[in-house]
Structure formats: structure tokens, C-alpha cells
Specification:
The structure is a homodimer. By secondary structure, chain A is α/β, with parallel strands linked by helices. Chain A is built from 13 helices and eight strands. Chains A, B: This is Amidohydrolase family protein.
Chain lengths: ~350, ~350
């Protein structure tokens, strides 16, 4: 089976690889961004993901080809650099960081190390400046290996709100999916995923799926998919099993409260089915597989789920072990390959 | 079948009924609290819940006995006044409002109109002042019809954090469950249920279950049930179907990250099973009942769920129609009566 892995994180070998793409005055102060609190108490990356020649995990394309793609038969990793571009209160700095990571990704993984075209990339934007973000999309949209636009779920407002529409216009203009990935919640003025400040990393980590649910509620109630009928959204690393319960509630209340959002002309779950895709890692696994498969059945998993490993992060999901062994082969084929191939045109 | 309805909202006939229990300087400025935004676009209460003699919905105990208890055979409504005590930045005012509502509830519904002892009440606290809240619990705990402590989920911090422990000490001291109810999120300095500000009522309403998930994550990761081994928590009107997915994720990450919270010595789902109960309204109903019943099975619904109607609110769940008709009778008996009878000692 040919596999598409929809959440893989390449890293620069060092800060200079990014710094060289930053203009003054940003270049001098730049350091590789990291979350300064909620540290993972064990380790952030798979310990075996450090390249033999040294450097950060997932900084060596050849070693990633061997350890991830070779081991599991992954045809296309969708590359999502961890840029933290939207942690900067200064929107010009945030947008410059996004541009620098895009230039680095294009020049290295997508060009210098991509003879076979296996690596597909994501255009990072700083969504705090929607017009600059739209210009950044315009800048990279024609790159042959850029297949989507991405931002982090750390935001100051639910992402379905109208101030972000220049971003979705640009996505539609170029036929690129808009992807959301966790990681900058609660940093640099971004809201946290939970009401109030979570204490421990595990609370913050589990809370990330709440931020995804909130952003999805916003997309589905603001009418984003009525306004942008060809827009597709990829929810990456936000969890999966919460989707059915959320849609059950939203559909029921939409029916009762449709005076509140009259532009939503169909049950919200129908928009979800057409416009939204979710990557699977970290897949919630119950004690009994049939409970998960019931939820897969409830959301039409064959249409909405796409495999992801989150390589090289510590909570990597293996293609061979992430899913119940009782999952039917046609569904497996859809999740491991077909749905992502359709979304990204691969 | 004898039914216990765990979420019923009695209202004062007018503001004077509360005002008379407020000392100076609070008395003069008091008005009946309401949420000043996110108004329900249709109507907040069942239109037929207005008493024949006039006055607010659910302000006439005799009419409530007829319309709710008589119609459905409800033996005990657990009464939860909508006090909004925790919307006040001034903690003294908030605590005074809580005290006034408690005095009103005791004097009217729990005493003057309660010859048969059917009405059971909740001690409202202002959790922003934990020591005052503990004193309020001490004040009312011996009342024969006060069966729990309640606060709203609108908070400034996740409710499992240690600043709230005087409240849980008081609950344990008196053997009273601690209940959480939605409604004040985003008001008076309380955080919203979602990252950023939701736009419409439906988004806010569906987001309430996210606040409940966040508070539950806090209770389960801070070690509240290790510190207070006899504490019981009731999550009222926060939804139900999200519980299994949340616990699957939390259990898996607890196993991997237990260095982060070493005081949690068992899978978090085990603490949930022993310590936490959820009321059912608004019950998420999928298109196919077996999907909901799979989630009931996954969480041990026979131990954790308690029926609630949310009378007199507009989205009332009827005892005869809230649940799938295929739900087994023994489970129905547990949800409609037994679990609540055990929690509240009825």
C-alpha cells in the first residue's frame, strides 16, 4: 500500500538556515522558536530520530527517507515546519519568519533534496496579518511542491471569523487547502486551548483538541463554506474521536436555532463532510476497538480521515499499529492514501 | 418508574425575593442577573412554562409540580437557581448574591412549598472567593434538603487548581457533591468556553461542552481525587458524548507522560468512574442510535449518567423522548433514578 503521511515536521539544521532568509532588522534577533513552557517531561522527539551525522531530529532528508519513508512505504510526506510564526505580537516579524521558513523549505527539502518529488510542502502564514498572509500565499502558490497553506491553532479569535477571509480567498484563488496545526496556543498573546491556564503539559496537550473543536465550530457557524464554496480545510494533529459527538450536538442545535445563523442552509455535518479533512495522529484508542470503529462509522471516516504519523515527534503513530487490526481494508486504503491524494492532488 | 431530574431551575417571582436577603450596600443596586450577550434567538424558556398566574417560568412551585413532576412522574427535582453569583468582579458582592439565593431557595421551595420533601436544593457558592465559599457551604450543609454545592463553569482558572481546594474540603467535610453548571462563561472577567470570542449563540452554546472538558481535564490531572478521596463531582448540562473520546486520549497520554503527574496512580478514567457523574441534557443524538449506545457502553453509562431535563429551559429533554427507545431497561433505570439516588442519598 502506498501511504501519504499528512503530518511530518522537517527541521532546519540550525538557526542560520532560517536567519539567512530574514531581512534586517529581524535577522539579528532571530533564534529558533520553541514553546517556553508546557515542556514535554520526557522528550519532544523520538530518541532514534536524531540523524547519524548529528543535528536536530528530522533535519536530514536522507535519514528521514530511510527511517520514515523506507520503513513504512510512505510515498509522500506532507512537510509542515514548526515555525511558531504566529507567536509574535509584532505582525511584521511574524510574517517575516513565515516567509523565511517558506524560502528555506522550498530551497532545501522541496528542491535540493527532492529529485523524485516525494516531499510536498506547506506554505506557512502568520494569520495575525491576513493581508500579508494572503500575499505570502500568492508568493508560493505556484511552487510545484507546495500543496497547502498552514497555520497554528494558537490564535486570538476563532478562525472562522471574517477578519481571516483574505486568507481563505487566497486559498480558493489557488486551489490550496487551508491546514491548522496545534502548538502555539497560549504563546505571544494567543489564547489557550482551555478556559484559564492549564497547569501541566498533559492538560495542555489534551486541551489542544478543544481548540480544534472551537475553531471548527467557528468555521461551521460563521458560514465560511457558503462564502468559499471550494475551500477545503485540513485539521492536523487535533484528534479524531471528538468529531462525531461535536457534530451531533451542532446539527441538533442548528436545527433549533437556525434563526441565529440563517446562512447555514444545511446541517453543519454536511459541510464538514464536503470541506473538512482530519489527520489521524494522535488517534484516540479505546480499550475496545469496536467503540472507535463505531465513531469512524458515524463520521464517514472513509471520506474525512487521512493518516499522519507526526514524525519525528515523541508520540509518533506508526502506520502498522495506529489503527485497529479489524479495520476493513477499503477503509484503510482510504485513510492511508486516497483521501489525502484527493485533497492534495497527488 | 420513579425519576430524579438532576437539573431543574426555579426562579424567584421577582427581584425583591432576592433583594430582601441582601445586606447593604448590595441591596440597592441589585437586579436579577442575566447574560447580556449571546441571547438565545428564539426564547430562553419553554413558552408553556409561564405559570397561569403570571410571573417568570418556573417561579410557581405548584405549577412546576403539575407540569414537570406530574406529567412525567418525577419524584425529586434537584433545584439549581440561576444566580450568576460568579459574574461579579467584586468577590464580596458575588458571595452576597450566593448567600441571598441560598436563603431564598431554603425559605421558599425547600421549606414553604416542600411538605413532601420532593424538592432538593443546591448550595450556590461564589468560587472566586474559596474561603467565603467554604463558609457558605458550612452555613447550609445541615439543611435537610440541600443535597449539593453548585457553581457555574464560568471561571478564571480550571477548577481543579489548588486555589479552589477549600471548597472541596468543605464538600468532603459535609459529604456533599460538588456540581458545575454552564452559563457564566465569558461574563465579568470569566474566561470563555472557546479560544477567543465566539460570535453567535449557537457557537457559544456548543462551546459550553468544551469548558466542561477543560475543567474535567483539570480535576483529573491535578490529582483532586487523590487529595479528596470521598469527593464526588456532578457535571450538569455539559453534554455527554464527548466523555469517551476525551478519556481515551487522556488515559493514553497519562500512561506515556506519568512523570508529569506522578500523583495520578491509576488511569484517569478510573477516577472518573468513581468520582464523577454527568447529567444527560443536552444529550447528543446521532442519526443512528447504536452510535450513541456504543459511547454509553464505552463510559459505563450505568454508573456515570443521571437524567436531567433542564426545565424550564427551551431545550428541555423529555424523560420519554430523550433516550433511544432501544436503550435497555436496566440502563434506563440507572440513568433515570438509581445513580442520582446514590449520589444525593435519596
Amino acid at each position: 500500500m502506498s501511504i501519504i503521511d499528512t503530518d511530518v515536521h522537517p527541521n532546519p539544521r540550525n538557526a542560520d538556515e532560517i536567519r539567512k532568509h530574514l531581512p534586517a532588522p529581524w535577522r539579528d534577533g532571530f533564534a529558533m522558536p520553541r514553546r517556553p513552557f508546557y515542556h514535554n517531561p520526557i522528550h519532544a522527539n523520538r530518541l532514534d530520530a536524531t540523524p547519524p551525522g548529528g543535528g536536530p531530529a528530522a533535519s536530514d532528508p536522507d535519514f528521514l527517507r530511510e527511517q520514515l519513508m523506507g520503513t513504512y512505504g510512505i510515498r509522500h510526506p506532507i512537510l509542515i515546519p514548526r515555525t511558531f510564526a504566529n507567536i509574535h505580537p509584532n505582525p511584521d516579524y511574524g510574517s517575516a519568519v513565515a516567509t523565511a521558513f517558506n524560502a528555506w523549505l522550498a530551497e532545501t527539502w522541496l528542491e535540493a533534496y527532492n529529485d523524485d518529488g516525494a516531499f510536498k510542502g506547506s506554505i506557512t502564514i502568520n494569520h495575525h496579518d491576513p493581508l500579508a498572509a494572503a500575499a505570502e500565499i500568492d508568493r508560493w502558490a505556484d511552487h510545484p511542491h507546495m500543496v497547502q497553506v498552514v497555520t497554528d491553532s494558537g490564535a486570538r479569535a476563532p478562525l472562522g471569523q471574517r477578519q481571516y477571509y483574505p486568507i481563505y480567498e487566497a486559498c480558493e484563488r489557488h486551489g490550496l487547502p487551508f491546514a491548522m496545526h496545534p502548538g502555539t496556543d497560549g504563546i505571544g498573546g494567543n489564547t489557550l486551548p482551555t478556559p484559564g491556564v492549564p497547569t501541566h503539559y498533559i492538560e495542555y496537550h489534551c486541551g489542544m483538541s478543544l481548540a480544534f473543536q472551537a475553531h471548527l465550530l467557528s468555521f461551521l457557524t460563521e458560514g465560511v463554506f457558503e462564502r468559499f464554496p471550494t475551500l477545503r480545510i485540513a485539521l492536523l494533529e487535533g484528534g479524531v474521536a471528538w468529531l462525531a459527538p461535536l457534530l451531533w450536538r451542532l446539527d441538533a442545535y442548528w436545527r433549533a436555532l437556525r434563526k441565529d445563523t440563517p446562512w447555514i442552509t444545511r446541517p453543519p455535518s454536511e459541510y464538514l463532510d464536503e470541506h473538512v479533512r482530519l489527520s489521524t495522529q494522535p488517534l484516540e484508542r479505546p480499550g475496545r476497538d469496536e467503540h472507535l470503529l463505531a465513531l469512524f462509522d458515524a463520521v464517514g471516516a472513509e471520506r474525512v480521515l487521512m493518516f499522519s504519523s507526526d514524525y519525528p515527534h515523541w508520540d509518533f503513530d506508526s502506520p502498522t499499529r495506529a489503527f485497529p487490526s479489524s479495520m476493513p481494508d477499503p477503509l484503510r486504503q482510504r485513510i492511508m492514501h486516497d483521501t489525502a491524494a484527493e485533497l492534495y492532488g497527488l
